[in-house]
Amino acid sequence: MGTVDKAKNKAQNLAGKAKEKVGETTDDREKQNEGRADQAKSDIKDAGEKVKDAFHR
After folding, report:
1. Three-state DSSP class for residue 49
2. What is the rounded average pLDDT for all residues in the chain?
3. 55, 52, 49, 56: which is closest to 4 by C-alpha?
4. Per-domain residue ranges for the chain?
5. d(Cα 21, Cα 18) in Å, to the nearest integer?
């Protein structure tokens, strides 16, 4: 996995966690769900990068 892609995925995951916490604190379910969705997107991208890496070896 490229270092830049890995960093972007980690940043998206952390932003999603922060957004989810803000939603919990403010009792904003929409914000919580957005945060969870950002985390899921990050996890999917991460998995895709790992698959690409496995085929490039």
Report:
1. helix
2. 92
3. 49
4. 3-55
5. 5
> What Å distances lie between residue 22 and 3, 7, 10, 34, 56, CA to CA?
29, 22, 18, 11, 39
Residue 26 has pLDDT above 60, yes or no: yes
Separation of alpha carbons 8 and 45, rounded Å: 10
Tell me how far apart the alpha carbons of residues 44 and 6 are, in angstroms, rounded to a whole number: 12
pTM: 0.84
Amino acid at 33: N
Q: Residue 3: which pLDDT band, with cuts at 50, 70 and 90?
A: confident
